[in-house]
């Protein structure tokens, strides 16, 4: 049975989830009928999705005072604050989602994203293919871990920021494609994160056999701490040179840089990087290595879409088929920004 602010078949392939009804929804006793709802309908049509064939939900089933969702679920601080009424709405929401058999759940905004995955930062996570993991479990909360989630920005935000409409439409098209199956099928990548000295030398030589190689550096305290090479989209190595201490002796590190110089200057192998101006300039200024020929995906994207963000995080959300958000944009560091060095190495290899 539907509450006033949910509608659509329980066996729909896609379930859209909002935060709470607004004044227009309360007036019409239906979800998504105000200005944001009209824009939502337009974006659905633009993306090839039929609203009547979708399930539509809201986490909270009443209009928050002054439209302030924080009266129920407050995500403004690191540790969420859930009121007693908010907890009741969450428990009811989880039961309804358990009854919904959608292949893909599409949270619209931060609150439903957090309710499904425990994650926040919707503008960073949008377009990612994630796995649901309800954190607020109790004896009455169904275990729905593993269900496919593709978050996007709430249409109300797109009323204020026009460019968001393009982002939402892109994410909706991904949700439509992904709605054919409940399975999460992300590219399986081989990331070599703890190579020996011999592994590194052999891998660099191996890269000479490819027409192009992805190239990225991380800089810590004005020193190259990590170098990553990727001759294929699903295969990369991170070379961890410096992590608070040297990982190789001076003779080994010199040998690594000599082999890298041969690759970076090989005219038959194109080096591809995002913001190559940084990587190539730093390597030249530090070691006198001229990286060429080169392609810069940041420049290419900025030329093609000058109004869009050009950071690697955003470009990944557009082109990498739902690869979950893994980074905050950065090239230079004072210290390891991650929990451990293996995570930093993975970050570098993914870049």
From TrEMBL:
Alphabetized UniProt keyword annotations: 4Fe-4S, DNA damage, DNA repair, Hydrolase, Iron, Iron-sulfur, Metal-binding
CDD domains: UDG-F4_TTUDGA_SPO1dp_like
GO molecular function: 3'-5' exonuclease activity; 4 iron, 4 sulfur cluster binding; deaminated base DNA N-glycosylase activity; metal ion binding; nucleic acid binding
InterPro entries recorded: 3'-5'_exonuclease_dom, RNaseH-like_sf, RNaseH_sf, UDG_Type-4/5, Uracil-DNA_glycosylase-like, Uracil-DNA_glycosylase-like_sf
SUPFAM superfamilies, per database record: Ribonuclease H-like, Uracil-DNA glycosylase-like
An annotated GO BP: DNA repair
Pfam families registered for this protein in UniProt: DNA_pol_A_exo1, UDG
Domain Uracil-DNA glycosylase-like residues, every copy: 4-177
Name of protein: Uracil-DNA glycosylase-like domain-containing protein
